[in-house]
Structure formats: structure tokens, C-alpha cells
Amino acid sequence: MEGKVYTGEDYKTKFNPRDYLKTYYAFDSGTVAENEILKFLLNNLFETFSPGGVGGDILIEVGTGPTIYQLLSACEAFREIIVSDYLELNLREVDKWLKKEPGAYDWSPAVQYVCELEGDRSKWQEKEARLQRTVTRLLTCDVNQPRPLGSAQVPAVDCVLTLLALECACRDVDAYRAAIRSLVGLLKPGGHVVTSVALHLQNYMVGHSKFFGLPLEKETVEKALQEAGCQVLKSQYSPINYSEAYCINEGLYFVVASKDPGA
């Protein structure tokens, strides 16, 4: 995995959403490591957003990428979902799926998997329709800015979801901590942060392009949340690594935290 490492503005010219999807989210292919990672995330999201768990009026996802898998359980727990990403191309990919446009990426294997967790695999088309109704806005964001959503007017939300995103966007640990503080600032008091991190990430491939990864440890993630005024409610570690040809990491970490009600 030698060669130039891309970051920041490079995403706008070097990141190919379809290459990313084919590499990491071909759920029905033979890429065993990537499939197991997706199952780990879907299982944790299902548990997190099940009845009696995290829910409310509005969830905002920061760093959506070109994917929708992470919203399949959330759409049962929230009245409205707002998605945001740094790249217009990624938002366009999501919008194609939401609008059922020709050539939209096929998420049906992941949708069916979540429906099986919920008890009825046959309801996957209903699940897709529910998510397509629940996502109401697509916004651009930049987690390295004090106001990650820029000038967009967004009310305080019940949940911020950010999966496998901040360790790709933040250049160092200080930037990561600042990003966490900014995202917690989007929450109502008592709201929740749901996040996952590819630990000890070095870099990852999208097509023939190599992108930067910030090496984070479990303790760094938890400390950043605590310093931002959150209490960690649940954490789950998995030793699964991505296929070495695609990504260098050492395990995954899934965390649910709540913002101090007095904040």
C-alpha cells in the first residue's frame, strides 16, 4: 500500500463512491472480512435503536458517505433523519437510492439482513420505503470546522450518528477531539452520540487511491466523548480487521454515549 496518501481537499477529485461501495459493501460477495464488519455494525445498530433504546424526533448523521446501511434500524426509532457528508458526490449517491433512480446501488442484501434481525426478512421492501420517507434533508458538512454544518439551520437533535468517518477526516487527535465537541454541540441535553471507529487506522484504499487514516485507540475515543460532556453508556469492541489489501486497522469500536442533561 505504498504511494501518495490523499486527504482533505483531495477527496473532491480522488474519492470514487462506487469504488468505495464495491470494496467495502459488496455484502453478497466473497470479501469475508468486510462482510463481518458490516454485520458487526448492523447488529450493534439494531440493538442500539431497538424499542426501549435510543430514539426520538430527529437524528443527524455526520459523514454519511455514499451508504445507507447505518440508517436501517434508526429509521424505526426517529421521526426524521438528516444526512450529511463532505462530498456532494456521496450525497448524490445516497439521493439516487432514496429516489429509487435507475443505477442506484443495491442495498437489498443489507436491508434483508436487518429485517431478519427484526424477525421478518420478507419485509425488506417496506423497510426501504420507510427509510426513504424518513430521510428529509441532505446537507454538506465539514467536521474540521467549528460549525460542521455551515450555515444550514438545524434544530438541536436527539441523536448524532457518525460511523467510520472522523478517523478519516481528522488529521490528528486534537482535531478529532474538536470534531467530537462540535458534534455534541448539535445535541439536545440528554441526547445521544452513536459512533464507531476503525481502531489504529493507517490508511485505506478506494480503487487505486490511498486515503489517510488517523490511528485512534479505544481510550482516546472515550476520553474525547467524556471531555465533550458525554457519558459512555455502551461500548463494543471487535477484533475484526479489514482485508489487508484494502485497509490497515486493528479492530473496531462501537460506542453509545449520552450528553449531560445539564449541558
From TrEMBL:
One of its GO terms (biological process) is methylation. Pfam families: NNMT_PNMT_TEMT. GO terms for cellular component: cytosol. S-adenosyl-L-methionine binds at residues 20, 25, 69, 85, 90, 142-143. Keywords: Methyltransferase, S-adenosyl-L-methionine, Transferase. GO terms for molecular function: amine N-methyltransferase activity; N-methyltransferase activity. The keyword Translocase does not apply. It comes from the Eukaryota. Belongs to the class I-like SAM-binding methyltransferase superfamily. NNMT/PNMT/TEMT family. This is Indolethylamine N-methyltransferase. It comes from Cervus elaphus hippelaphus (European red deer).
